[in-house]
Specification:
The complex is a heterodimer of chains A (260) and B (298). With 260 residues, chain A is an alpha/beta fold. Chain A has ten helices and ten strands. Classes of the chains: A alpha/beta (260), B alpha/beta (298).
Chain lengths: 260, 298
């Protein structure tokens, strides 16, 4: 993990209300280049709200999300114009959704799904686009002969891997993942986690990963934030939080995992 | 002439003003789809309600109208629309491309090059080129506004992946004036190059979707493609069976139930002109026997 002195993402006092109902309150943290931050907590604790505010899917009610762009300047992403935000999402950022159907175009082939991100940033050479798509299919362990098949003919695990390939093909610097292993069976989860861990290390990605699965957090995340009722109640290095939880809720969370 | 009980050119003056405003805006922003308050017309959606409203808004008593459907002047739709304007707008009608000042068309651009002072009005079923990839109207408008046209190439990519070439053969997406991606209505891609820098004004009316868009004269129109799969138009091995033309768009006509077929020009005026000038295809009557019969203008 390469730690430079400047954070890549700096979140300050992020708060989001759904009308009178609280989504998340006063969340602040820094994310350094190459770091994987896990956000854990039970359903309804505000994890996904936080992620949607970070990834520009939602405009927060208060607080700031500052991002250090490729030129080294800190930009307030919610103050950017919509075209710049969308450009950021196409180039520097990527989102892996829990349900692959949200992140894929189900009506076009696997190759086109990966190629779309390339074409969206201006690739106009069919041979290159196809080669790039097949390279990424290989990296996520999908056979070449499935390039022209529709994602709906894929298994759940393959769809999720395809979504990851589609997100990573444009070499984003920061990836948001929302329960990337949700809905997959245990052995498929394990392979996907292996794959993700390899890719994150190879590409030096910064990742914010939301999960309710502490095993996923332990495998992938360098640092953890534990959320409950919309606020961060504990944060620290993953092993530290999981092995020596301080907050009563974190203790409950850790102790409720079945020890096999 | 005004025995129809309707206002001149069927639509009331306020409606025509509204449509003209939409047309002016469309001409000012080439390729941009301008919403307009489309009216009910006395023909069903899909038969040219958009084109007919645009024509009604621009036509005047001194105009000469030509209407074509699939390139032909003598098909039902073309004949009805031509008669409609002959009755309600008292315009002269013609089948000759060169004589017309206003040409309403469905599915073709005439083979004879159009000149300044002519207007080509297309009937458009689905004006949104992004619709195939993105069903949400709010999202497609945003994509146009931000010039996010990457998905247009996804469709072309799929064609090459499945067929080895760009198999899209009609309604082939174009980029107008380097800015807006536009659906050229279901004309064959054979006609796409004719739109580029055409001296005539091109107007597009979509009645059901209530959109008008335009290409002003001499505007750049490029067909989308890949660097290694450049845009190309359809070609035929044979020539028109009636006039022998090899440079026009040919329709395949089944002539019997044992596999007999012939290829003929889809542009009936172009074919007729050539035959009148003495060109004969391998199944055409000899030039001396050919008599050109036209319905319009009588």
């Amino acid at each position: 993990m390469s730690m430079s002195s400047n954070p890549m993402l700096s979140v300050q006092g992020l708060t989001h209300w759904y009308g009178a109902r609280l989504g998340c309150r006063d969340v602040s943290f820094d994310l350094w280049p190459g770091e994987v931050l896990g956000i854990v907590g039970e359903s309804g604790s505000g994890k996904s709200t936080l992620l949607s505010c970070l990834s520009c899917a939602n405009r927060p009610s208060g607080g700031q999300v500052l991002y250090r762009d490729r030129t080294g300047a800190m930009v307030d992403v919610h103050a950017l114009s919509e075209p710049r935000q969308r450009l950021l999402m196409r180039t520097d950022w990527g989102v892996v959704h829990q349900n692959p159907r949200d992140g894929l175009r189900m009506g076009v082939s696997a190759g086109a799904n990966i190629g779309e991100r390339l074409m969206a940033v201006g690739a106009r050479h069919y041979g290159d686009i196809r080669a790039g798509a097949q390279d990424w299919l290989g990296r996520v362990e999908i056979a070449d002969d499935r390039t022209d098949d529709l994602p709906r003919t894929f298994s759940g695990g393959m769809q999720q891997r395809l979504q990851i390939a589609r997100t990573l093909v444009t070499h984003p610097r920061l990836v948001f993942m929302d329960e990337p292993t949700g809905g997959l069976d245990v052995s498929v989860q394990a392979r996907l986690l292996d794959l993700l861990r390899g890719l994150v290390a190879d590409l030096g990605l910064s990742v914010i990963i939301v999960t309710h699965d502490l095993a996923v957090a332990r495998l992938l995340a360098h640092r953890l934030m534990v959320m409950k009722d919309g606020t961060v109640i504990e944060s620290g290095l993953t092993d530290q939080v999981l092995d020596d939880p301080h907050h009563p809720y974190t203790q409950l969370l850790v102790s409720s995992v079945l020890q096999v | 002439m005004m025995d129809t009980g309707y206002n001149y050119a069927y639509l009331d003056e306020q409606t025509k003003r509204m449509i003209r405003r939409a047309i002016l805006k469309a001409v000012a922003i080439p390729g941009y789809q301008v919403p307009f308050a489309g009216r009910e017309m006395p023909l069903p959606y899909g038969w040219g309600t958009g084109g007919i409203q645009v024509t009604a808004a621009v036509i005047g008593p001194t105009d000469t109208l030509k209407v074509i459907d699939q390139g032909a002047d003598d098909t039902t739709n073309a004949v009805s629309i031509r008669r409609f304007f002959a009755r309600t707008a008292a315009v002269a009608t013609t089948e000759k491309t060169t004589e017309a000042t206003v040409i309403q068309t469905r599915h073709r651009i005439p083979e004879t090059p159009l000149g300044e002072g002519q207007m080509l009005i297309y009937q458009v079923p689905i004006p949104e080129p992004l619709r195939w990839m993105e069903p949400r109207e709010t999202e497609t408008r945003k994509m146009h506004a931000l010039q996010e046209y990457g998905v247009m190439h996804v469709k072309l990519y799929e064609d090459i992946a499945h067929y080895g070439r760009i198999a899209t053969s009609y309604n082939y997406p174009v980029l107008v004036n380097g800015r807006y991606v536009m659906a050229p209505s279901p004309i064959p891609k054979f006609d796409n190059p004719k739109m580029d820098r055409m001296p005539a004004l091109q107007l597009f009316g979509a009645g059901r979707e209530k959109r008008i868009y335009a290409i002003p004269p001499y505007t750049r129109v490029e067909s989308l493609d890949f660097d290694d799969h450049p845009f190309e138009v359809q070609t035929w091995d044979g020539a028109c069976a009636l006039c022998g033309a090899t440079d026009s768009y040919l329709d395949e006509v089944i002539t019997d139930d044992v596999g007999g077929r012939m290829f003929v020009c889809s542009d009936s005026d172009y074919c007729g002109d050539r035959r009148a000038a003495g060109h004969v295809g391998d199944q055409g009557a000899t030039a001396a026997d050919y008599v050109r019969v036209t319905e319009a203008g009588q």
